[in-house]
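User: I'm preparing a small set of examples for a lab meeting where we compare how different chains pack in three dimensions. I only have the primary sequence for this one, and I'd like the structure in token form so I can line it up with the others. Please keep the answer compact; I'll paste it straight into my notes.
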Amino acid sequence: MEDIGLLLDKFSDFRNNGQNKYFDADDIVSLMDYFTETEDIENLRSVIDLGYKLHPDNMDFKLQICKTFVSFGDYETAMKMIEEIDVEGDSEIDSLYVECLCELGLKEELISFISGLTIEKSPYLEEIIEHAACVLNEIDEYIHFAYKFISNCLQVYPDNEILKAELCFNLELQGRIKEAMTKCEEFLQSDLYSAELWLIKGRLHATCCNYGKAVEAFNYALSCIETEDAENDDMKYEILMLKANCFRKNENYYSAISIYEEVMTMEDIDNTEVVSLFAECLIMVKDYEQAYHILKNSLINTNIKDSANNIGNFVYCCIMTDRRDEAYDALFDVIVSLPRDITIKYLASLIAIQSDMNDTEKDRDEDRQRLIRSFINSNLHVN
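Assistant: Understood. Below is the structure token output for the 383-residue chain.
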């Protein structure tokens, strides 16, 4: 299989220049995976068509098509394709099939399918059950069915850590906080090093505004992650963000700031949310200069349409660090760029700014001062 960059160049030549190129099945699967991840639907359709021409009977290609339909929520089509593949004893195919059954609400078919795997003594039955529990818990209308399903499965696999965590999570989703906490503490007696259970316990404490106990639970969860072999970056990110939120709720902004500084160094993390919360904490401790630089760098590197929530704080930091001209320019740019955003509409209503500004420098300066005064009196920034 070629490097993805070379594959993309090769595929581009094929599409744009009509050059006769051959792609093996692994190349097709890699291109499909890339275009699915980047949500490039046009190229995805083209590579699927090409795959059908070159490798119509290749199992890896067919499996990737099923994954693609599942990732885009077309579960009916994915399920039909899985049934057409008609391969027994493949954990990946059966896992996709179970996901489709769950998402389509085919509860009786799900139970029947799992019963079939049980009769066959499938070596991956427990893995399939875990996957079904996770999927069901993500579907609001099946939350009560999920509870019964997970409870029954725990009777068969009483030591399964994933099912224990999913049961606690299910109770949390239902708002049965006390029951969730009781179960969580019960499970932790036998699974003391379960990061997932400590994470849930921390969330439950935070829900009850017991932020000190929540932080303690999150610390245990982090220590458990450090002793595990698997990659846990996503979980670590979630725990750190929840822990920082507890500090913010207790107005312990310096502790929250130290966590956001750590999170900002993590790889493969979308730090858009982090920047916003980080800057808010800096503003609360009156470190306007650092907040200004963080927000400015973020606004430079992101689309303004994705950064509307940070604009208010950026403008405020400009004002508080005597960068009023920059504050005015930022306000004007965002009003022009996001005329339909409800926050920006309110901002624009504070003072009418037309593209044909007043002719004299004095008038323009008065407009700037009026806009900035109106902004400070608004609620479009942390105060």
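A couple of notes for your slides: The chain is about 75% helix and 0% strand. The chain has a mean pLDDT of 85.

User: Perfect, thanks.
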